[in-house]
Every structure is written in structure tokens, then in C-alpha cells.
Write a structure and sequence with these properties.
The complex is a heterodimer of chains A (156) and B (173).
Chain A: H1 2-11, H2 17-42, H3 44-53, H4 59-79, H5 86-109, H6 127-151
Helix pairs in contact in A: 2-4, 2-6, 3-4, 4-5, 5-6
Chain B: H1 6-30, E1 48-49, E2 59-63, H2 65-73, E3 78-81, H3 85-90, E4 97-98, H4 104-120, E5 125-128, H5 136-146, E6 151-155, H6 158-164
Parallel strand pairs in B: 1-2, 2-6, 3-4, 3-5, 5-6
The chains are: A mainly alpha (156), B alpha/beta (173).
């Protein structure tokens, strides 16, 4: 009986400071990515222009990504607020943010006038703007990664 | 039977979510008033392209760096910068005035005397924005065409190409 109780205790989620931090991160991630997704969803042509500036995609794929990524961000952002979808949602956000980070660093390294387009538009680019986007993505990867790591401790 | 690692399962589910999202995106695109084409086209690609030395006709045309440079250096066009005003202040093509899509109504009112004077002298309007993938110059050109301005040229390479080539720029207000 003790063994059964002990094994349940290992997988049972114990509320504490981590609980509130986890919920805060989930909320921030959800708001950020849903907002980012909506802004890009409303102006897919602008986002497509941002993607084209990276010179990483073939022309045939740019508009497909520009149309598909915003709903993906919105759905993943909403999933991190749910219990069942938390793992796949946070995993998706880690992958998305990592992809953006790699693209930004690649653009910087090649001296391209890239704009993240994360929150819409193909606004003019400056190195400072890109480095701010890199820092923001790094923070989001950290948050989403921690949420994913902690998600297994929630009772299924 | 051994369970697959968590990240593998979540990776597969993420791919499924992405495919589903692409389906949603393409589906909604098909009912948009102005759907995106399946294959990407640069914003100015739909306009007539002028070769260097070719004379321009009424309407919107795209020019390259050689033509743009000639027009700017000889002051043979009214240069309009379609970028946000913050970037306009950081640097712009010589003689440019600011006409951005975000602030179009106010900017157009401010620019109208110069535009009218230029057109009276038979001088074309030369628009540019950040780079070839920026759509601001195309947006402004369409607005100008709606207002019946005649000869509108778009310098496709934009400020980034001009600056990269080390050509002269102006800064400040």
C-alpha cells in the first residue's frame, strides 16, 4: 500500500510556488502567441514579405508557411492553457520559437534586412531590432521549454 | 511493448497540428477578398518593369537601381519614402519626402503641394520603401493611382539596397 501511495505521490502534482510560476508562464505564452498569430493572420501578405526577406524558403513554400503558421501559433497558444494539450502546445511553441531564432541569427549572419514579422508587417529592419527579437525568442524558448519540462508532473 | 519517448509523441502531434493549421490557413485564404496566391510574388512584381533608359507611361512601373540613381542624382523625380517616419529620419534617399501607408492621410496632405508641382512640370513620382519584399511602396502607389496621379515609379530595391551600395543618403528631420 505504501508503495502504491509513494508511486502516486511521484506523479501527483503538488501545488506550490512552481504552480503559480507555471501558470504565469502558460498565460504569458498563450497571450503572446495568440496575439502574434492573430496579427499575422490578419496580414498574411505582410508576413509573407517578412519570410521572403530571410531567403530561406523556396518561393513555393513562403505563402504556405505564411498562411499556416499563424493558426498554428494560435492553436498552440490556446493548447498551453489546457491540461490535455499542455505538452503538445508547449512543445510546439518551443519548436516555433527555436525556428524563428535560427532564422533571425541566420539573417543577421548573412547581413540580410530581415524583420522577424513576429507581430506583423515587413517594417524596416535594424540590427538592434533583430537582436531584440533574438532576445525575446530566447526568453520564450526558455519559458516554453520549462513549461514543457514541468508539464509531465501534472496528473494525467 | 515499450512506450515511445514523450518528445517523440509530442513531435508527431505537433506535426499533425501544423498540417491541420496549414489546412485551416489555406481554407480561410480561399474565402478572403484578396487571397494570397499559392506561390509567393514580391509586392511589386505585378507591375510593369521599366528597363534603363526606357521612357515611362501613365500608371505604376518598377525601376531598377540604375534608373532610380539617375532620377535621384539628376533630381528628375519627386522621391517619396513610404517607410515609417522614424526610419525616414534615420536615413533616406536624397531629396525624399515621407509618405507612409500608416500615416497616409496626413502625409498625403503635407506632400500634395510638392506632388502637384512635380506633376505640373512633367516629373514622375519615385516611390521606395525598405527592400523588394516590403509592400509599403506598392500600397502607397495604389493609393496614389486611385487619386489619379499619373506616372508612379517604384524603386524595388529600396533603401536597403541604396545604403548597401554606399550611395549618398540624408538624415534627420
Amino acid at each position: 500500500m505504501d508503495e502504491v501511495l509513494k508511486s502516486r505521490a511521484v506523479v501527483e502534482y503538488k501545488p506550490g510556488a512552481h504552480h503559480w510560476l507555471l501558470w504565469s508562464f502558460r498565460l504569458v505564452l498563450a497571450i503572446t502567441f495568440v496575439w502574434a498569430g492573430v496579427v499575422k493572420f490578419v496580414d498574411p501578405a505582410g508576413f509573407a514579405g517578412s519570410l521572403a526577406a530571410f531567403k530561406m524558403f523556396h518561393e513555393a513554400w513562403i505563402n504556405v508557411v505564411a498562411l499556416g503558421l499563424p493558426p498554428f501559433e494560435i492553436l498552440a497558444g490556446l493548447l498551453v492553457l489546457t491540461r490535455r494539450g499542455l505538452e503538445v502546445g508547449s512543445f510546439s511553441l518551443v519548436v516555433t520559437s527555436t525556428a524563428f531564432l535560427i532564422a533571425l541569427l541566420s539573417g543577421l549572419a548573412r547581413g540580410l534586412p530581415v524583420d522577424c514579422g513576429c507581430f506583423g508587417g515587413t517594417g524596416p529592419s535594424t540590427p538592434l531590432k533583430v537582436w531584440i527579437a533574438v532576445a525575446r525568442d530566447a526568453v520564450l524558448i526558455g519559458m516554453a521549454g520549462w513549461v514543457y519540462w514541468r508539464s509531465h508532473s501534472i496528473v494525467e | 511493448m515499450r512506450k515511445p519517448p514523450r518528445y517523440l509523441r509530442d513531435g508527431v502531434l505537433s506535426v499533425g497540428l501544423l498540417v491541420f493549421s496549414i489546412g485551416i490557413g489555406l481554407g480561410i485564404n480561399s474565402v478572403r477578398p484578396e487571397p494570397l496566391p499559392f506561390s509567393y510574388q514580391a509586392p511589386a512584381s505585378g507591375f510593369h518593369r521599366l528597363e534603363n533608359g526606357q521612357s515611362w507611361n501613365p500608371g505604376i512601373s518598377v525601376v531598377d537601381i540604375a534608373t532610380a540613381r539617375t532620377l535621384v542624382e539628376q533630381r528628375a523625380a519627386l522621391v517619396l519614402d513610404a517607410r515609417p517616419d522614424l526610419f525616414f529620419k534615420f536615413g533616406r534617399l536624397p531629396g525624399a519626402i515621407n509618405l507612409s501607408p500608416k500615416n497616409f492621410v496626413t502625409d498625403y496632405e503635407n506632400c500634395l503641394p510638392k506632388i502637384t508641382e512635380a506633376e505640373a512640370m512633367g516629373v514622375p513620382l519615385l516611390l521606395y520603401c525598405a527592400h523588394e519584399h516590403c509592400e509599403d511602396a506598392s500600397k502607397v502607389s495604389r493609393e496614389l493611382e486611385k487619386k489619379r496621379h499619373q506616372v508612379i515609379l517604384i524603386y524595388e530595391g529600396g533603401y536597403d539596397e541604396w545604403e548597401r551600395l554606399g550611395l549618398k543618403v540624408e538624415k534627420g528631420t
